[in-house]
Amino acid sequence: MDITYWQLYYQLGxxxxxxxxxxEAIYFFRRAIDVCPVKDINKLGxxxxxxxxxLDRIGRHQLAVQSWVQARRLVKTGYIARLYDRWVxxxxxxxxxxxxxxxxxxxxxxxxxxxxxxxxxxxxxxxxERDVVYAIIDDTWRLLSKKRIFSHLSVEEKLELFKRARxxxxxxxxxxxxxxxxxxxxxxxxxxxxxxxRLHYDDPCPCGSGLPARMCCxxxxxxxxxx
Length: 227
Known about the structure:
By secondary structure, the chain is mostly helical. Helix content is about 55%, strand content about 0%. It has two domains: about 5-85, Tetratricopeptide repeat domain (Serine Threonine Protein Phosphatase 5, Tetratricopeptide repeat); about 100-215, no CATH class.
């Protein structure tokens, strides 16, 4: 396709953002990404960035971060880099109102991922099961917060601690058997191949983006739900 199609779709997406029609904007930004020449990173980067902005406005925060990461890989300076640092926290997730909430969001995402992997089928089988798991995580976090053990730790040190934490989760198989017709609440998580050497979270990401690994390919990624 001719480059004018990219310009058309991109401008239509921006027009819908100005009108607060974010779902329509998402459609046109994705179309712009599809037809934009891959080698034109100065055009492709803003497309990913704008797509992330529209996704963020409808509450799909982690999908927004995914788009911003793609934009930041392509464009390493200028307004995209500045806004990436403003909107994405040290865990590679959507920045919250304060650092304590950033820590909580990362802790919860890690514990849900561990629970669902142990569960075996990678999903919550009911909303009740999900609510019980969230409540256990919240109670644990309140206890940890009272001890104030995170105040002097770096993001990398907190990540290591969050991943080592073990919570005693129940498995609600009885409820699953009683309500087999319930639509499962899905949550899938990406798995990345481990490098041949010991990669630290603060090391530059192997993809060459220039970002720390914890904010790029090795950030906390959760698919199927957004907090």
